[in-house]
Amino acid sequence: MQVAFSAICVGLDNAGKTSLLRTLSNSQRMEIFPTPTMEIHYVICPKIGKYCLIYDMSGNGRHRSNWRILYQDIQAMIYVIDTSDSEYRFHLQRHLIEEVLNDDLIKKSAIPILFLFNKNDKKNRFNKDDLIKVLGLDSKKFKNKFIFKETSSFEISKLKEAIDNLTDALYSKKQ
């Protein structure tokens, strides 16, 4: 199996990271349990017909320090945000995003980051544009290429489109 690139998938616990990745990788497991520390998924990149290796990292507080271990081995990041989360969790999210984006390895590599605004099928949710502002993602102080997509684990076409957008950003960076 030829792997085009590797990415890390991060976000707070219960954001839906594992559900999204299992949908993309056609995993048949229906029961979802909290990711212990890490799962590995191979996801086809529709546009280039190759696989990407995605490290699905636990969003639990005590496991977040493990994210950094993989920063030097990745070419892209997927950051999943639960749009139906509480206001308190969005403040925690903003702090966590700033911590990730200010990490020396992330700043130096300037990897593309796909922000997936997940669970957009829920009624009580925040919209993408408001969350971009609340989370400080409208700032120009970061040199990473940001891609913003609204998703749900029920919308495979939007998920595939998001992976295509990430692939485009990654390959345009290499040229």
How would you describe the overall organization of this protein?
It comes from Paramecium pentaurelia. It holds the Pfam family Arf. GTP binds at residues 11-18, 59, 118-121. InterPro entries: ARL2/3 (IPR044612), Small_GTPase_ARF/SAR (IPR006689). One of its GO terms (molecular function) is GTP binding. By secondary structure, the chain is an alpha/beta fold. The protein has a single domain, classed as 3-Layer(aba) Sandwich (Rossmann fold). It is 31% helix and 24% strand. It is built from 5 helices and 6 strands. The chain has helices at 17-24, 87-101, 104-109, 128-134, 156-174; strands at residues 3-10, 38-45, 50-57, 76-82, 113-118, 146-150. It has a 6-stranded mixed beta sheet, covered by helices on one side. Strand 2 (38-45) and strand 3 (50-57) form a beta hairpin. The longest helix is centred in the C-terminal third of the chain and has 19 residues, at 156-174. It is globular and about 40 Å long. The two termini are 24 Å apart. The model has no long low-confidence stretch (mean pLDDT 90).
